[in-house]
Amino acid sequence: MDQIAHISPILTALLTVSAPLLAFLYQVVRGKRDQSGIISLIAITISFVCGGLTWLSIWNKPTISIQLAWFTIGKSTFTVGLLLNNLSTLMLLLVPTVALPVHIYSRAYMSGDRGVHRYWMYLSLFCFAMLGLVIMDSLLLMYIFWELVGFASYLLIGFWFTRAAAAQANKKAFLVNRIGDLGFLIGLAIIFAQFKTLSLVDLFGEGGLIYQCVLINGQWVSPVNSMDQIWLTLAGLAFFLAAMAKSAQFPLHVWLPDAMEGPTSVSSLIHAATMVAAGVFLLATVFPLFNDSALLFIAIIGTITAASAAYFALGQYDIKRILAFSTISQLGFMMVGIGIGTWDAALFHLTTHAFFKCLLFLSAGAVIHEMVHLKEHSRLDFDPQDLRNMGGLKKYMPKTFILMSLASLALAGFPLTSGYLSKDSIVISSFEWALSKGGLYFIIPICLIMVSILTAFYIGRLLFKAFFGEFRLLGQLQEGLQNHPLHEAPKTMLIPMFFLGLCCLFPVFSPNPLSYHDSWLMDGLLLDEYTFAPSHLAHLVIPLLLLSGSIIGWIIGWKWYVHHKYPLDPDSGIQKTAFHQGYINEFYERLFVNGTLKLAQFCYWFDRHVVDALVALVRFIVLTVSQWSVWIDKYIVDGFVNTVASAAYWAGNQVRLVQNGKLQTALYSVFLLVLLGLIYLIFF
Questions:
Q1: Number of helical (H) and strand (E) elements in the chain, helices listed first
Q2: Whole-angstrom Cα distance, residue 513 to residue 421?
Q3: Residue 137: count of CB within 10 angstroms of its CB
Q4: Which residues partner with 67 through β-bridges?
C-alpha cells in the first residue's frame, strides 16, 4: 500500500488517458483480425484502476499542474500540460467507472456483429477523447479534445452506417455540434484577446487573471487588457453555446434523440458521463467567468429544456427515445444548477445521473436484445424497441426488471437512492436562490418541482408498459412463447448492470440518505459559500412534495397503463405534439433545410437566368462592337488610308506625264494652270 501511495498522480493520470489510445491504435492495426475486444477491455480496466489511484491522490489535496512549452506566436507561448484538481480527477474516475461496465456488457451485446472490430476501435477513441478533455490545462487543448469527442461520437452514432436513419442521425449530430463549436471558438478568441493566455492555471487558478478583473465605468479591465463590459457577457454566452450543443439544451437538443440509432451500449455511454456531460464540465471549469446576466440566461434555458424534454418523453413509444428525452431533461437540471451558482450540485447530479442513466440504457438494451431474438425466431415484423409491442416482461426478465426499477427510482428521486440526494440539491437550492431574488424568479423552482413529478410519471409509464400486464404480441405467435421463450440477458450483460445498480444507492455518495450536505462529493467541490441563505423549511417541504407527487403519479400511471383505464384521447393534439417533439424538427426542416434548398434553387435559377443571361448579353455586345470595329477598320479607316494612297499615286502619275519632254505638253500644262488661276480669281 505504501508503494501505491507513492505513485505519482501525474503518471497514473497519463496512464488513464493513454491506455484507451493504445487500444485504439492496436485495433486500427489489427482490424478484422481481432474482434474480441479484449484489448479495449484491458485498456479501460487500466484506466479505471489508474483513474481511481489519481482520484485518491488528489481529492481534497492541493492542485497539481504540469506544463511544457508547445509553440510561440509573437510574445504568447502556448503550453501543453495536465491539470489535476478535485473537478478533473472526479471526471477522470467517473468516465472509466461507467465505461468499464459498458465494455463488459458490449462483449455480449455486440457479439456476432460484422463490424464489431470498428466498434471497439471507436469506443476506445471515444474514451480517450473524453479522458483527455477533463485533464487538459488549457482551453485550446480542451477545444482539441472537444472536437475529438464530437468526431468519435459521430462514428459511434453512425456505426450501422448502412441504415439510412443512422447515417442521417450522425450527420445531424455533427452539424448541430458545429454550432456549439463556433461558440467555443468565439469564447477562446475573447479570452485570449483579454488575457493573452488560454492556460486554465493562469486564468482560474488561485489568484488567477479572472479574479483580478474589475468593472470600471462599463469597462472589463484585466491586468493585461481592457474591453467593453459587454464582452464579459458575450464570452460567457459563447461558452454556454458550446455547452448547449454538446449537452443537448433547447433548442439545440434535436440531435440527441436521433442519436439512438447507434448501438444501445453506445447510447448508454454517450448519455451517462461522456459526451453530453462535457458541456456541464466545461461550464463548471470556466464558472468564474460568468456574470449575473449569463448565469440567469443559463438557468432559464436549463428550465425550458428540463420542462420541454419531460413533456416530449410522455408522448414517445420507443423505449430508447424516452430515455433520451429523460437525459435531456436531467441535463436541464444540471444547467439550472450552474445558472443559480451551485455548480457543485450540478456536478453531483451529473455523477449520480451517470450511473442510473447508464443502467437504464443497459436494461433497455437487454430488453431490446431479447425482443430482437424473438423477432428473428418468430419471423414477425415488429419494432423491438416499441413499448406497444412489449408488456408482461417482468415474468420473463425479473432481474432486468428489478435493476431497471432501481434505476427508475433513482431517476425519479426516490429516497434511499443517489438520485434523491443530487436532484434535491438542485431543486432545493433553486428555491433558496429564488427566495433571495424574489418575484418571477420563483418560476424556476416551481417548474423544476413539476418536472420532477413528471419525470417520475413518464419513467413509471415506461416500466408499466414494458414489464406489467400481458405480453402484447402473444396472440400473434403461432405457438405462444413455448418454443420462443423470452429470458434473461446473458450474465456478461447482467453483471455490469448489477454493479451500476449498487451505484444507484445512497451509501456510495453519502452516509446520510436524506441530506446531500453530507455527501463527500459536495464537500470536495464546494469551495465557497453560496450567495443565498439556506432555508430549513425548503429542506423539509420540497422532498415531501416531490415524493407525494411521484407516488400520486405512479398510482395514476398504474391505473392508466396496467388496468387500461386511460381516459385521454391518444390522438389528441397534446399527445401528438409530444410525440412529434413539439414539431421542432419539422420547424427546422422547413426553416433551415427547406430554406437552404430553396435558397440553393434560387441561386441556381439566378445563375442560370440572370448571371448567364448577363454574361450572354455582354458577350453579344462585345461581339457586335468587335464586328463593327472590324468593319470600320476595314472599310472606313483602311478605305480612307487606301484612298489617300491611291490619290497620291494617281496625282504622281499625272505629274509624271507632264515631264515627257514634248513642247505641246508643256504649253498645255501652262494653259491649264492659267485657266485654273483665272477660275479661282473669278469665283473666289
A1: 27, 5
A2: 7
A3: 22
A4: 81
